[in-house]
Each structure stands twice: as C-alpha cells, then as structure tokens.
Predict the 3D structure of the following.
Amino acid sequence: MTGLSRVDLAQVLGDLAVEMQDQTDAESTLHSIVDGAIAIVPGAQWAGISLIEGRRVKARVPSDPLVVELDELQSSLDEGPCVSALREHRTVHIEDMALESRWPRFSKTAAARGIGSLLSFQLFVHSENLGALNLYGSQPGVFDEESLFVGELLAQHASVALIGAAAESQFRDALSSRDAIGQAKGLLMHRENLTDVEAFALMVQTSQRSNIKLVELARWLIDQHAARLNRA
C-alpha cells in the first residue's frame, strides 16, 4: 500500500490499533502487528518480530520461514541489524543488503537468500525494551521516507498494544491466583475448622517450608479436594 495521504494513514493506523487492542493475548497481538506491517508499510514483503532471550534472538510470528532463518543467523553470529535495533535502541535501515558493510557475515547470507533491503524498528515504551519489528524487501531501495514514517508510527502503536496485552495477561494471572488462594483457604477453613486468618497462615507456612509458591500450593489443594470428591 503506497501513496497514502496523512488522513488515510491516520485512519488505517487507527483501525489497526483497534484491531490490536481487540486481541485477547500477546500472540494474537503480534500477529496483527506483522500482518499490518506488510499491508501498510511501502516495500515490505516479509515481516516478523524479534525478541532477545539471553544471548539468542528468537523469531515470533514470522510471515515466512525465511524470517526465522535470518533471526537464527543473527543468533549464531551474535550480530546483525535486528540485534542492533534491540540492544542499541534505534531504527536500522539497510538500503542495499549486497552493499551493507556493518554486518558483513549477516548481509552476505541475507543477500544470497533474496533479501534486498531491511528496516528494523525497536519496540519499546519508556525504558522497557519489548523487541524489534523487522521488515524485509526483495529488492534494494524499496524502503523510502514514507516507509520509515509509517513503520515508526506502527512500531509505536505496536509497543503500546504489547504493553496492554502484557498488562492484561498479568492481571488475568493475578486474578486467577487470587481466586485459587481464596478457594483453597476456604477448603482449609471447612476441613480443619480454622478461621480465615489461621487458614491463610497455614498455607503461607506450608509454602515456605516446602519451597512451593503459594498459588501452586493452593491449586494443589484444590486438585486434591476434587480428586477426593471424584473417588467418593
């Protein structure tokens, strides 16, 4: 998609932002980001999101197996444009992969695999590094100023959506943990004739002595109770 007016671009990005916010989990959000990037960034033929796990670069929701191959190559070399975008907090633009000299081992292999150009945008909110959005073109010079402008806007929307998805996931996990602990506490109160405070104290002490997280202990108590009911 090329030649969008600023009004049209704002509408497209707005629609994409709504779509990303409608996703129920981080993986679905990532898929929307990648699909949207290919659809609206001029010159983008392939796309993916890179995350750093330890010293490795891991590809998420790649649009093509080639994207996975390129991330794995950067992991093995411990260098490349996506690694720089992630570690150095900046946008990387390779206009002609065959002439790229900053990462010669990576660029030589990428050019041989049919990659002509690249854009890599860091995904971040404040100081939190979320990953990198990587866009690939099959020919040199396909990414212009409009590509950079649209890609940076999309990366900003994507960063906010990812933070939102992570926060919602954490909230759901916390809510689930709270419910499990409350249910287990109620079981102990009934079974051991304990007060609310006594039941919770017993769970905390057992958790500490057995080196088991409180929520895991709670779920174990619930599972044991369900098993006894099934045997009855």
Remarks:
- The chain has eight helices and five strands.
- The mean pLDDT is 81.
- The beta strands are 46-53, 56-60, 92-94, 117-125, 128-137.
- The helical segments are 6-22, 26-40, 65-77, 81-88, 104-112, 145-192, 196-210, 214-231.
